[in-house]
Design a protein that fits this description.
Blueprint lengths: L6 H4 L10 H10 L3 E2 L7 E2 L33 E5 L5 E3 L1 H5 L3 E9 L22 E10 H8 L7 E10 L8 E8 H6 L3 E6 L2 E2 L9 E3 L12 E7 L6 H5 L2 E4 L2 E4 L6 E6 L5 E2 L2 E10 L5 E8 L5 E2 L1 E3 L8 E10 L2 E11 L22 E7 L1
Parallel strand pairs: 3-12, 16-23
Antiparallel strand pairs: 1-2, 3-4, 5-6, 6-9, 7-8, 7-12, 9-10, 9-11, 13-14, 15-17, 17-21, 18-19, 18-22, 20-21, 22-23
Bound molecules: ligand MTE and molybdenum atom.
Length: about 375
């Protein structure tokens, strides 16, 4: 007889019921998002809606690979197993009873900006709006791992979502799973979040629990979390080793920290003004270090320093503004670029890679004066 080692994660769970994709798309359009594909749930935020310190939940971008699982939070459990001395099965009540932390964190899809790569790369053709900042509340991942008492041989932490579906080049249904090393899991400050902007996590953002890994591309922040398992070996699942991998010049690396980037949120592309003064506003972020400066170029003039508005939260984006005077008449290109404290500068032309990740091009819009 074969004993199936299903592990503590997938054990007995059946696929969850899923949300109505058509309805989700209509809600997203009514919420003012740009809906990308007919048969999926990928929507981005319009630049004008990215300017606030925190993005309203209804306007927050949505990126899901499979239909949204609708989980019953009273029956739901988070299983923590594998190389641990004390396997856990935590209810939502047990997680919310642990010390809670609230953090403002900017989440960005690694494919954000992909539409600008030439030649084009496959995948959702995101503009600049697959990013948002929210206030997340949850238990600290490190506290939960501590409770489970990690075996010294544990090297990798694999996070499993309840969603699943077919993917190119693999048979059957693939679950959404992604990993961090034990060190990254403990040191990143990651949260097991059950609330977003002060309200219970909505289904589309991972109800009842999601991981939020500050500074990392969104793919690390697994939604609809049902299992965490510790292993001694690196994880080679589809979303770790085949997808969300940066392939260039012989190197293959899973995407990790968000690259430095700024976005112009006002004025809007194509807006018309009287000749004279234009107030340019935006946000900027980097996963590697705080934003050091943002520069703006108007009508192909020199790069000039923008004013940083307020103090950014440690893992939230930085608001900025710039007053451009004497502009026009005619069409004017307005560009912005950010630099972080580690010296990374938002490039004119980020390196093309096969799957189109980390497309942190200098942001540019055109306005007309006169
Ligand atoms: N379970 C699960 N988690 C997931 C995903 C997914 O498809 N399934 N998408 C990931 C990706 S690629 C991104 S960018 C973020 C998007 O989070 P949001 O939809 O809350 O904005 O969730 C991540 N977590
Ligand atoms: Mo993503």
């Amino acid at each position: 007889m074969t004993i199936l080692n299903l592990g503590p994660v997938c054990s007995l769970d059946r696929p969850a019921p899923v949300a109505d994709t058509g309805l989700e798309r209509r809600i997203a359009a009514a919420d003012g998002l740009v809906v990308h594909e007919a048969e999926s749930l990928n929507c981005e935020t319009r630049p004008a809606d990215l300017g606030a310190e925190v993005t309203p939940t209804a306007r927050f971008f949505r990126r899901s690979h499979f239909p949204l699982p609708v989980l019953d939070s009273s029956a739901w459990r988070l299983a923590v197993g594998g190389l641990v001395h004390r396997p856990l099965s935590l209810s939502l009540a047990e997680l919310t009873a642990m010390p809670a932390q609230t953090m403002t964190v900017t989440l960005e899809c690694a494919g954000n900006g992909r539409a600008r790569f030439q030649p084009p790369t496959p995948g959702v053709q995101w503009g600049a709006g697959a990013v948002g900042t929210a206030e997340w509340t949850g238990a600290r991942l490190a506290d939960v791992l501590d409770r489970a008492r990690l075996d010294p041989d544990a090297r990798e932490v694999i996070f499993s979502g309840a969603d699943r579906g077919p993917v190119d080049g693999a048979a059957g249904q693939i679950r959404f799973e992604r990993s961090l090393t034990v060190r990254e899991a403990l040191e990143s400050g990651a949260l097991l979040a059950y609330a977003m902007n002060g309200r219970p996590l909505p289904v589309r953002h991972g109800h009842p629990l999601r991981l939020v890994v500050p500074g990392w591309y969104g793919v690390a922040s697994v939604k609809w979390l049902t299992g965490i398992r510790l292993t001694a070996e690196p994880f080679d699942g589809y979303f770790q080793a085949s997808h969300y991998v940066r392939e260039s010049a012989g190197a293959r690396e899973p995407v990790r920290l968000q690259k430095v980037r700024s976005v112009i949120t006002r004025p809007g592309h194509g807006q018309v003004f009287p000749v004279g003064t234009v107030i340019v506003r935006g946000v900027a972020w980097s996963g590697a270090a705080p934003v050091a400066r943002v520069e703006v170029s108007v009508a192909d003039g020199p790069w000039q320093k923008a004013r940083l508005v307020g103090a950014a939260a440690p893992h939230g984006w930085q608001q900025w503004e710039f007053l451009a005077t004497g502009v026009g008449p005619g069409e004017a290109r307005i560009r912005s670029r950010a630099e972080d404290l580690a010296g990374n500068v938002q490039p004119e032309r980020p390196e093309w890679n096969r799957l189109g990740y980390e497309a942190n091009f200098v942001h540019e819009i055109r306005v007309r004066l006169g």
